[in-house]
Amino acid sequence: MCASAAAGGMNWMPVDQVDVNARRAFWMWYLDEAIPAALRS
């Protein structure tokens, strides 16, 4: 999954139309993977 595509796809959608489970999965990935990877670099 491309993080930027997921974030961009969510940004233009009304909140009530966003899949909550997909959004939660994205944020769990973001917090667990993307941030630590950025901090290591």
How many domain units? 1
Helix content: over 70%
How many beta-strand runs?
A: 0
Low-confidence stretches: none
Compact description:
With 41 residues, the chain is mainly alpha-helical. The chain is built from 2 helices and no strands.
Offer a few descriptive terms.
73% helix, mainly alpha, single chain, 41 residues
Ordered list of secondary-structure elements with their pairings:
Layout: H1 3-11, H2 20-40
Could you explain the architecture of this structure?
With 41 residues, the protein is mainly α. The protein has helices at 3-11, 20-40.
